[in-house]
Amino acid sequence: MCNACIIENVKASVQSRRSFFTKSAAAGAAALAASVASARVTLAQSSGKVVDLTHTFDEKFPTFDGKPGIAMKKLVDFKKDGYTIYELTIPEHSGTHIDAPLHFSEAGTSVADLEPQNLVCPLCIIDIKGKAKDDANAMVSKADVEAWVSANGEIPKGACVAMNSGWAAKVGDPSYRNLPDGNFAFPGFGKDATDFLAELGAAAIAVDTLSLDPGNSKDFAVHYSWLPGGRFGIENVNNLDQLPAKGATVFVGAPKHRGGTGGPARILATV
């Protein structure tokens, strides 16, 4: 299916989902808040190392729809006025950015209303670089999550679980977004994995690709199930190889524009 067809297919499905998510969003958000509130979130003791998980953002950075994700217009020039100001035009979902529940749920939480305690949380990194090398649309599966738990212990409630597919190294190359034939192709989470993570009480997921769902997804199943539950996602993260599988703490510099469905963010981690 062509990229434009996929986007139109998703638009068409929104109408049929509105009633369901209007009812489920509030219940899901309440359940997540109760889960996080009832658990003591374990944050890492930092050694002082800070890793920037944010890509530098310009008009050439890849976007889902292929259009430039930022435009900068100089309004005030230093040589003339003694200081400089740019006017920025930025679609919310571009660069390293947040997907708030409202992005895929009509009654979901906006980015301005994300719970602060969920923006500073333990970071768990699941490495799927091996299978992503062989399959551009590889997915984090429930089995991958179970293998991580077996090797590293329980995923803390309120954690952010990140996929490291090695895709960040492709930024600047067309293969970050699609195959030579033009079809979307990049790793993401499988719904079986995110359903399991929801049961475990994770607050967020993060990917080093353009989307929480893999590139060949036809229905955005992860977006439509993860976000309406009151959880959020982070897309286009960088430098996950500089962090251990467990033990880091992530700081999510989410934007705070009222009614927003997400937005570019500065994501930092300490370990």
User: Main β-sheet, in a few words?
Assistant: 9 strands, mixed
Helix content: 25-40%
Give the SSE order as H and E letters. Answer: HEEHEEEHEHEEHEHEEEE
* Cα end-to-end separation: 42 Å
User: According to CATH, what is the topology?
Assistant: Glucose Oxidase, domain 1
SSE blueprint and pairings:
Layout: H1 3-37, E1 50-52, E2 71-76, H2 78-81, E3 85-89, E4 97-99, E5 120-127, H3 129-134, E6 139-140, H4 142-152, E7 160-164, E8 188-189, H5 191-200, E9 204-207, H6 221-226, E10 232-235, E11 248-253, E12 262-264, E13 266-270
Parallel strand pairs: 5-7, 6-8, 7-9, 9-10
Antiparallel strand pairs: 1-13, 2-3, 4-10, 4-12, 5-11, 11-13
Task: Walk me through what this model shows.
- This protein has 271 residues and is of the alpha/beta class.
- It has a single domain (3-270), classed as 3-Layer(bba) Sandwich (Glucose Oxidase, domain 1).
- The protein is built from six helices and 13 strands.
- It has helices at 3-37, 78-81, 129-134, 142-152, 191-200, 221-226; strands spanning 50-52, 71-76, 85-89, 97-99, 120-127, 139-140, 160-164, 188-189, 204-207, 232-235, 248-253, 262-264, 266-270.
- It has a nine-stranded mixed β-sheet with strand order 1-13-11-5-7-9-10-4-12. A two-stranded antiparallel ribbon has the order 2-3. Strands 6-8 form a two-stranded parallel ribbon.
- Strand 9, helix 6 and strand 10 form a beta-alpha-beta unit.
- It starts with a helix and ends with a strand.
